[in-house]
Specification:
It is built from nine helices and ten strands. The chain is α/β, with parallel strands linked by helices.
Length: about 250
């Protein structure tokens, strides 16, 4: 009888070992297939985002990675609680990937959209309301690999709200805006993003002539405020990195 019990116990241990081994093999194969099906760019984006998330958390920011713009829209919506008031600055990223429509479609948020008002006075009112909003959305002109976010502003309303006011600030940043260093991020913001942004407006600046930043002092310059976000006081800032080219 004792020998039969020993034999049964041995069989159970062998069975458990086989199940455990098969589980490990299955998980390994699943992970392998995920990476095999990725392009080199997608692999690099995953790895870069993983590194940057660690750097952003070190700077007291919550951070996430979404491989696609559609995933980013869903993530941003998940981060905003029902009943919240929400607005944004002049971000093409926020508009282009459909975040305003997604938030309005929920029907449970107070959405302050400056594109829906007609007068300059109404636009300024939304600028002011941003400081008491629950959530402010923004993109960035550039971000360094170690997590410093760089923005250049014309009116200053965007960088002002990023700095102070709204309870939470959520950035949506395509990995095309990542620069190796803070200096390179500033160079990207000035030399790439700003001339393209200027081209959106009917203004007379040197970059409108040749597409190159001249570090001008034009009265119509849209580069009046340069903002660096190094750390997030009270964990106000959240960053959603996106594995697609977004914005300028």
């Amino acid at each position: 009888m004792l020998e039969m019990l020993r034999h049964a116990t041995k069989q159970k241990m062998i069975l458990i070992f086989c199940i455990f081994r098969n589980l490990i093999v299955s998980l390994h194969d699943e992970t392998y297939n995920i990476f095999v099906n990725m392009t080199p760019t997608e692999l690099r984006n995953e790895r870069l985002a993983e590194r940057m998330i660690k750097q952003l958390k070190r700077r007291n920011m919550e951070a996430f990675y979404c491989a696609t713009a559609a995933e980013a829209v869903k993530k941003v919506s998940e981060l905003i609680a029902d009943g919240s008031s929400v607005t944004w600055g002049g971000s093409m990223t926020i508009r282009d990937i459909g975040i305003p429509q997604a938030l309005k479609g929920r029907g449970t948020l107070e959405v302050l959209d400056r594109d829906e008002v007609e007068s300059r006075e109404e636009v300024v009112h939304i600028y002011e309301r941003a400081f008491t909003a629950d959530v402010y959305l923004s993109s960035a002109n550039a971000i360094s690999e170690d997590g410093v976010i760089v923005n250049i502003d014309g009116n200053g309303n965007r960088v002002a709200a990023i700095t102070w006011g709204p309870k939470k600030v959520i950035f949506v940043i395509g990995l095309n805006k990542v620069a190796q260093t803070v200096e390179a991020a500033l160079s990207r913001a000035r030399g790439t993003a700003s001339p393209v942004n200027a081209a959106r407006f009917d203004i007379k600046t040197p970059c409108q002539t040749d597409g190159v930043c001249h570090n001008c002092n034009s009265p119509e310059s849209i580069c009046n405020y340069v903002h660096f976000l190094r750390n997030s006081p009270r964990n106000r800032h959240t960053v959603v990195l996106v594995g697609e080219d977004l914005g300028y």
